[in-house]
Design brief:
This protein is an alpha/beta fold and 352 residues long. It is 38% helix and 19% strand. The chain has two domains: 2-138 and 330-348, Nucleotidyltransferase, domain 5 (2-Layer Sandwich), CATH 3.30.420; 147-326, Nucleotidyltransferase, domain 5. The chain contains eleven helices and 13 strands. The strands form three sheets. Strands 1-4-3-2-5-8 form a six-stranded mixed sheet. The protein has a five-stranded mixed sheet with strand order 11-10-9-12-13, sandwiched between helices. Helix 3 (132-143) packs across helix 11, helix 5 (210-222) runs antiparallel to helix 8 and helix 8 (253-277) crosses helix 9. The longest helix has 25 residues, at 253-277. It starts with a strand and ends with a helix.
Length: 352
């Protein structure tokens, strides 16, 4: 277990914090991040534990329960002061039943009642259950890049493309817990469109995810398109979006083309989302933002998305809809999961 105090966000002290308190759990295929958050969305403490999915779901939720007790103690709180736990999880799920169905990155966790088992290992604390991208979206809405918005869409760019849609305090989860699967918006209806990892053709994820960036780049290199990437791969380096970004920043034409084609594909999907939802803003997060605001390439990437989107949407939407990078980074998931727990707590106690 690693303590995030040294490297994470500024933590609020127990004396400064405003009760009630909530715990957020951001479950990932490799690591799980757990944090304590106050009623204003301010973290008091956070830890990261390895998920170790190969040990099975019951072992994982047991260790989550132990980590929750540990991080609550680090926050100088007692478990009795925690009002509710929020759990954000990847994979297909049945949210009302608290079940994981067939999570691709958690092999062997099929049909596991994760919400209730985590509650058991937390001493019976109630647990709110939500999709991991929706949790991150709620975190950004509550205290991040979407603070002050009434509605937002968050796209998380990584191996796939996750999405969360928040309107008011409501996460759009859908009747079958498959709402906001916007990585699977069709952006190319052609019969020979690219295959998505889900087994269908033409989806946004097939063109604009990290997996797609690597695939498109490899196809160009195998077609002998000139690029400085050839030399780096010949030295034994692995082709990743980060490698593409590094060469794009140096001016490699192919790498820059790949980055800006990705912006083009994302803009097509974003235009559809804006016309469907009409949100205050669309935020981009996840591991593949090409450096975000801190990088010239990231800023160019964002501006290209804005330009490509605006020319495809109604003028009033182009003028008013904010498109920007997310603000909370890897903390969005656990903060948002805690925020969803807070919404549930307030609803059940008659505070909203």
């Amino acid at each position: 277990m690693s303590n995030e105090t040294a490297t994470g966000p500024r933590f609020t002290s127990r004396a400064e914090a405003q009760p009630p308190f909530f715990v957020g759990v951001d479950l990932g295929g490799t690591n799980t991040k757990i944090g304590v958050v106050d009623d204003l969305g301010r973290p008091l403490a956070a830890v990261v534990i390895p998920t170790q999915p190969e040990k099975g779901p019951e072992d994982a939720v047991r260790r989550m329960g132990e980590a929750i007790r540990s991080v609550v103690a680090q926050a100088k709180l007692d478990m009795s002061e925690i009002a509710r736990v929020g759990l954000g999880s990847p994979g297909t799920m049945d949210i009302p039943k608290g079940m994981l169905l067939k999570p691709v990155n958690l092999v062997g966790w099929d049909n596991f009642p994760i919400r209730d088992r985590l509650s058991y290992h937390c001493g019976g604390l109630p647990v709110a259950f939500i999709n991991d991208a929706a949790a991150a979206a709620y975190g950004e809405y509550w205290v991040g890049g979407g603070r002050g918005f009434h509605s937002l869409v968050l796209l998380t760019l990584g191996t796939g493309i996750g999405c969360g849609i928040i309107i008011g305090d409501l996460s759009i989860d859908g009747e079958n817990s498959h709402g906001a699967e916007c990585g699977h918006i069709i952006i190319n209806p052609a019969d020979d469109a690219r295959w998505c990892n889900c087994g269908q053709r033409g989806h946004l994820e097939a063109y604009a995810s990290a997996t797609a960036v690597v695939r498109r780049t490899r196809e160009a290199l195998e077609a002998n398109v000139p690029s400085s990437l050839h030399a780096r791969l010949q030295r034994g380096e692995t082709l990743t979006p980060k490698l593409v970004a590094e060469e794009a920043e140096k001016g490699d034409p192919l790498s820059r083309q790949i980055v800006f084609e990705t912006a083009h594909y994302l803009a097509i999907g974003i235009a559809t989302l804006i016309h469907t939802i009409d949100p205050n803003g669309v935020l981009l997060g996840g591991a593949m933002t090409f450096g975000g605001h801190g990088s010239p390439l990231g800023r160019e990437f964002l501006e290209r998305i804005r330009q490509e989107t605006r020319r495809r949407i109604f003028p009033v939407l182009a003028e008013r809809t904010i498109i920007d990078f997310a603000a909370l980074g890897s903390d969005a998931g656990y903060i948002g999961a805690a925020g969803v727990a807070r919404v549930e707590h307030r609803r059940l106690t008659g505070q909203q």
